[in-house]
Write a structure and sequence with these properties.
single chain; Urease accessory protein UreF
């Protein structure tokens, strides 16, 4: 499978990375009627893209670019992990990011036929050493590099994956018209492209200078959802 096809595979909602079990805050937002139709879903997704989506895209692109340039994984993994942690104020959001990252790592290692000296293999070794799952955006960047993709592809996969996961959850929770939901996602394509382009340009800048936009409302939703006893989605 060539690089363009692998990029589609990583972005495919059917890729067994566990994303179907997450709503990205949509379940809580629907319960509060913040999301109730196509227009409100569009506003929510744009807000997510401009904050957590932008952060994830830049982290994924930065990891991919550094692996392609030959950076030492022994330095990269702790550095990327620390930068991801610093950009997530919510403990629940950090836990979810690591849960998704661990699932994606296990799947990517299996699907991409990783060798012992590959970036994903070293990330798996780092997980074993620390006993801690890697953040989702970090694994996206590592998987993209493993698949021979460019930092722009890693950024697109991170940003688009966030939108697609949340939109799919809204479809299930509200019973929206599937065509309307797809239209909302399609209209956000230009935003995903913009974020990907910006992340590509910044991919080799010092990691501490990557965007760090906060999303207080999303953090609060994550904390409330984490403590719920009855819920359809894990996040």
């Amino acid at each position: 499978m060539g690089a363009p096809a692998l990029a589609l595979l990583l972005s495919d909602a059917r890729f067994p990375s566990g994303s179907h079990a997450h709503s990205g805050g949509v379940e809580e937002a629907c319960d509060r009627a913040w999301i109730h139709d196509g227009a409100s879903l569009d506003r929510y997704l744009r807000g997510r893209l401009d904050t957590t989506g932008t952060v994830a895209a830049h982290l994924a692109a930065a990891v991919c670019a550094r692996l392609e340039s030959g950076s030492d994984p022994a330095w990269l993994w702790p550095a990327a992990d620390a930068e991801a942690d610093a950009r997530m104020a919510s403990p629940a959001a950090r836990a979810v990011s690591r849960q998704q990252g661990g699932q994606l790592l296990r799947t990517a290692v299996q699907v991409l036929d990783v060798g012992d000296d590959a970036g994903l293999a070293s990330l798996a070794s780092e997980r074993m050493r620390t006993g801690q799952e890697p953040h989702h955006a970090v694994v996206i960047g590592a998987a993209a590099a493993q698949a021979g993709l460019a930092p722009a592809d890693a950024a697109t996969a991170a940003a688009y994956g966030l939108v697609a996961t949340s939109a799919s959850a809204a479809l299930r929770l509200l019973g929206l018209d599937p065509g309307l939901t797809a239209r909302v996602v399609a209209r956000l394509g230009s935003e995903v492209d913009r974020i990907s382009a910006e992340a590509t340009l910044a991919s080799m800048c010092p990691m501490a200078r990557l965007p760090s936009m906060g999303a207080p409302a999303a953090d609060l939703l994550a904390e409330v959802h984490f403590d719920r006893r009855e819920r359809l989605f894990a996040s």
